[in-house]
Specification:
Blueprint lengths: L2 H9 L2 H10 L16 H8 L2 H10 L14 H8 L2 H10 L14 H8 L5 H8 L14 H7 L3 H11 L5 H5 L9 H7 L3 H9 L14 H7 L3 H7 L5 H26 L7 H23 L18 H5 L8 H25 L5 H28 L5 H9 L9
Helix pairs in contact: 1-2, 1-3, 3-4, 3-5, 4-6, 5-7, 6-8, 7-9, 9-10, 10-13, 12-13, 12-14, 14-15, 17-19, 19-20
Length: 405
């Protein structure tokens, strides 16, 4: 870089910048020819010369994405030096500048998680680009890894607040670094009980093993971190806990495979085909839902109030299907399966809709599924003999025995 230009950038002298441009109209273009170089924007951002920074962004915005010989962008340097106003102004111009990967793959968000939050920069970053929380370094570390490793509890809280609003929060929380450690492993190893609680509340999986075959609990034991051991200890015996984990993992794998078969390539469906499918699925949902309300043959209405000789057994059969038990189950179970498939396909087809409208439809469909699910439990139990366990199952779902036979 020309020494006069460097001096102008370091002192924030905009007038001198234009004097140099008048002398050489290509003075800024030459920086495009070099892959890694200190630009005037780097110098001004590091020195905190906001006026010069904004002038360069106006004349040559491409410099904001350049990395210098140390692998840092102007945004990296501004964050590192704590020049909050420059960072915010750059963020207003290009939100994705916070996702530029510099040396070791670190983004400006990774730097904040390491050096600490300057005047609320973290909240500004997460609001402008919440998906930046998914970015990883060359060592496969997320912002969560870095925050935990540097004992930044306040930053971890902010990151988890953002993660809770995302569908992919489990994937990010349980992401492994180059050694197979999740953020939970690091918190357990460093005996960070408050961080452990935050991560566990955000569905961190304590059964995940690292490349040494150790869980977070094993690491806490190895370092004799009593507080971490107490938090991570399961209320069940290790055998039962491991069985539950394996069963849960197998169920998740089966459900994932089944859902991928159903919704594979659904994003490629045209808008016309999507609309036609939504109409068909709406008819299926309506038909199957109506069937739960009025099964073929109807339901028993019991004896009239004028009959005084009715027994308690007769009264108990009010609202149950009149079909024989075997016939009822043969009809009802396939119908409910059709309802579930139509329900989940409808949710998948709603993906391209605006987020607010999609969420509203998902809530309404969830209420519909909840009511239909409850009616299935009531209907099936009404054709079966009552026993202690079936009564407990229905009680869990919020239904008392008076609804069924």
């Amino acid at each position: 870089m020309d020494e006069s230009l460097r001096t102008a950038a370091s002192t924030g002298n905009v007038s001198e910048l234009y004097n140099l441009i008048r002398g050489d109209g290509n003075i800024l273009r030459r920086f495009d020819e070099v892959e890694f170089i200190d630009t005037p924007l780097h110098v001004a951002a590091e020195e905190g010369c906001i006026g010069f920074v904004m002038e360069i962004m106006n004349l040559k915005p491409s410099m904001a994405r350049k990395l210098n010989q140390q692998g840092l962008s102007p945004m990296h340097l501004a964050v590192k030096k704590g020049h909050t106003e420059i960072v915010l102004r750059l963020l207003e111009i290009h939100k994705d500048l916070i996702r530029i990967r510099g040396r070791k793959g670190k983004t400006p968000l990774h730097y904040i998680c390491k050096v600490g939050d300057h005047d609320g920069l973290l909240d500004a970053f997460l609001e402008a680009c919440p998906d930046s929380i998914c970015d990883v370094t060359t060592r496969n570390r997320t912002p969560l890894h870095i925050a935990v490793r540097n004992r930044r509890l306040d930053i971890l809280r902010a990151l988890i607040r953002t993660l809770r609003k995302k569908d992919y929060y489990r994937e990010v929380v349980n992401r492994k670094d180059e050694h197979g450690n999740t953020a939970l492993h690091i918190a357990a190893s460093d005996n960070q009980p408050q961080m452990l609680k935050l991560l566990l509340e955000c569905k961190a999986d304590k059964h995940v093993i690292n490349h040494d075959g150790l869980t977070a609990f094993d690491l806490a034991n190895r370092h004799n971190n009593k507080e971490s051991i107490s938090i991570l200890r399961d209320c069940f015996s290790p055998g039962v806990s491991n069985f539950k984990h394996k069963l849960k993992r197998q169920i998740t794998e089966y459900v994932t495979k089944a859902s991928s078969l159903i919704v594979d390539n659904i994003d490629g469906i045209s808008s016309e085909d999507r609309s036609a499918l939504l109409v068909i699925l709406g008819l299926l949902l309506t038909a199957t839902y109506q069937t739960t309300l009025s099964p073929p043959g109807g339901v028993s209405q019991g004896q009239s109030s004028s009959t005084s000789t009715s027994t308690s057994t007769d009264v108990g059969k009010i609202g149950t299907s009149v079909m024989p038990q075997a016939t009822f189950l043969e009809f009802y179970i396939p119908t409910y399966m059709a309802f579930l498939v139509a329900f989940f396909l409808t949710l998948a087809l709603l993906k391209p809709f605006p987020r607010g409208l999609r969420t509203l439809h998902q809530i309404l469909l969830a209420f519909l599924a909840r009511v239909n699910s409850g009616k299935l439990f009531v209907a099936v139990s009404s054709v079966c003999h009552w026993n202690h366990y079936s009564h407990r199952i229905l009680f869990i779902y919020g239904y008392s025995g008076r609804h069924c036979a």
